[in-house]
Amino acid sequence: MKVSVQAVAVWGKIAPSHSITAIMITDDQQTIVTGSQEGQICLWDLSSELKISSKEILFGHTASVTCLAKAREFEKQPFVVSATENGEMCVWNVTSGQCIENTKLPYRHTAIYYYHCSFRMTGEGWLLCCGEYQDVLIIDAKSLGVLHTLSSSLSSDWINCMCIVHSARIQEDSLVAVSVTGVLKVWDLSLSLNSIQERQSVCEKDSKSLDCINCQAVRFCTYTERLLLVVSSTCWQVYDYCDFSLLCTEFCKSGQCFAGGEVLAAYRLIIWTEDGHSYIYQLLNSGLSKSVYPADGKVLKETVYPHLLCFTGVKENKSFPFVMGFMNERKEPFYKVLFSGEASGRITLWHVPDVPVSTFDGLPKEIPITAVWTIQDNFDKHHSMSEGIIDHLCASKGGIGNAVVSSSVYIPTLDKLVCGCENGKIFVTLGLKTARARLLENLSLLKDNLPYKVLNGHSSRVTCLLYPHDKSVRFDPHWLLSGGQDSVVICWDIFTGGILHQFSLQSGPVTELLRSPENYRLKDHSIVCCVCSDHSVAILHLQKRVCLLHARKHLFPVKKIKFDPVENLLIVGCEDDSVYIWEIETGTLERHETGETAKAILTSIEDSECLVADALLPVSQESKRNKNAGYKPYSSYKHGMVAYNLIHTEKSSDKV
């Protein structure tokens, strides 16, 4: 009989960091979904009065989130999809917080659009994806498998932005995209369904080179079915969708860069910038002239003049980057909402009026901020919030005040919780008893009866911890390793709290501590590996207390480390797909390979020779940890995908 284990996360008075990199509002306008640089997804409740409250944090990604999108018809299944920098994709149920499906593909997506035509398609629909690869990928919304590719007959390139064009008049769908070189392309989705299902080549039906570099957004006006909005970093333009003739161009102010835009209504647009401002324009004298022919025989286009009606701004002039979006809900309460997320973790909402107007003297009118919220606001609002799990140690005689935990490891065999802090101190206490006393608010037990130790050795933040004996008996059970921002690795005696040895690497902050694999040739010896922020890799012999190898020539961040047990080689794979092969005994660089040769070298060494980290999630914000373990999907609830509830209530009948 399987035993269900419930994961519980306990934070102190400081909320977890959530640097927003992607944001969306669900179709029912009841949930805001944000993705973060830390890899977590956060769900926020949105009330009918546009009040925000953080609800859940979903753990499952190991890299920064690049984009979010809905993954089903939301009325039937409340699913959203997230994608990350390292190719991970997850489908989440935003009602339950469960991960429905996940995969890892060799593609970095920057935009995803859900497409489903009920009377022409079977299945759950498609995810149309673009990013740092050529043209457009079609991914099955249910299995997350690659179905097909929308290719280009000419000038195949990366796609910067795209949108789905649905014509209610002729009941046909198209995909409009703009490449990084400024080429606009149109694929006919309705006529290509059979070709896609039969895996036949599908190319664009039309293309045009625009005078537009670094395009940020493209939007189709469903109200007129005639206008096409194209937003670049320096200007926004309006085109006639029938022949792609240019009708209007508006340049941004000095010092600003446009980041996106949306169509509010017929001949009314909203454009936003990278620094969180937005502008609402009314297009005057819009439309095409009737039967007017100039001397060259071409149809004369009537000029469209943009008139600035309203604008929005931010109260604080932050240097944080903004990600913004717009929701035009056609169901009650019929809100038009402009929303933004910041790297600081703050969400801002503006309620855009149905009919934006300027002031009486004709000047643009400012739209006030409707709501602002952060996860920390939730923590501050509920005074019944529990303290951090080691806050009682910081207030005691041996501790220090306001310690912020920067890394931690739990040792089940010893029931010891080890917490490294921002100030360089390391606290060692009993894990389960401390957690139980904290959850049950047994303060007397916390302060008087639970033993603990404070380890002093690092001069700055503790970035990573490792207890190697917990996974391999060849390591001495006394050894506890810590790495710090001071580029020092310390080997501690966990029972006495004394320092056994210090390894001074002088290579920047230590980002990872890894155990050597079991089948390593020197398996009787105690070997660990550490990675530093300057991309160097060091092999430390704990028993002899020496550094066997310090490989410093890697130009890019380390992505994968493997051992060749036969030749006694260290193989280091970097993010640029290059491979460095080091001779461990002599410390010399034997080979440096790139391209297909590098891939062949990495695949030739079995995964069993990979170095293994004890930590499940990144231990520091500076480290972007890439896991060597396979990102394998499961048929039901996904193992390793954890949702943490952020709702705080004072009702005793509610769940903890």
TrEMBL record:
GO cellular component, one term: cytoplasm
PROSITE patterns, A to Z: WD_REPEATS_1 (PS00678), WD_REPEATS_2 (PS50082), WD_REPEATS_REGION (PS50294)
Domain of life: Eukaryota
Alphabetic keyword roster: Phosphoprotein, Repeat, WD repeat
Ranges: WD repeats: 20-54, 58-102, 455-502, 551-592
InterPro entries according to UniProt: WD40/YVTN_repeat-like_dom_sf, WD40_repeat_CS, WD40_repeat_dom_sf, WD40_rpt, WDR72-like
Keyword Calcium: no
Gene3D superfamilies for the chain: YVTN repeat-like/Quinoprotein amine dehydrogenase (2.130.10.10)
GO biological process, any: protein localization to plasma membrane
Name of the featured protein: WD repeat-containing protein 72
Species, as recorded: Phaethon lepturus (White-tailed tropicbird)
